[in-house]
Amino acid sequence: MRYKVPQNVQREDQILWFITLRQLIILLVGFGISYTIFVKMKAKYDLTGFELFFIWLPAGIAAAFAFLKVKGIELLQFITLLIENTLFRRPRRWWIQHSGDPFVSCTTRVKSNTKKDPQSTSTKIFDHNKAKKLADFLDDQKSSYKQKNPSTS
């Protein structure tokens, strides 16, 4: 009996159209808070566009947390990683160079101003005779090891 194995198991299930359950809960909470504020304020005051903007601000923030992605990461996860990196991780170390230059990060590369002479560079030449001698030497070592230890093969 053969079963179909799902290929993309890391993807969240979609509840309504393209909205996942997590996004739906975030939207319901945000819009519920905004609607509650709107109903309470509408009963007591005559609201203008300026007040309506601040009343519906929690709904906009909830929509941002539900749908917005920064660098391919969800907004809530991005903010928590940002807080973790700034508060709980060690800062990067900085050193002063002996040449008197300003601070240099450990992640930056320092380019040297010295130019290499093309004549002074040495090229390595592959010598077949040396390679043959090395191979023979290693083969001799292997055969002498087998003669001393016959139990290993």
Poorly predicted runs are none
Helix content: 40-55%
Work out the strand percent: 5-15%
What is the CA-atom radius of gyration, in angstroms? 34 Å
Distance between the termini: 45 Å
Mean pLDDT: 82
- Structural class of the secondary structure composition? mainly alpha
H/E series, N to C? EEHHHEEHEEH
Task: Report the total helices.
Answer: 5
Largest sheet, in brief, is: 2 strands, antiparallel
Number of strands: 6
Strand order of the largest sheet: 1-2
Gross geometry: elongated
Features of the shown structure:
two-stranded antiparallel ribbon, 153 residues, mainly alpha
What is this structure's SSE topology?
Elements: E1 14-16, E2 19-20, H1 21-44, H2 49-55, H3 57-67, E3 69-70, E4 73-74, H4 75-87, E5 94-95, E6 104-105, H5 128-148
Antiparallel strand pairs: 1-2, 3-4, 5-6
Helix pairs in contact: 1-3
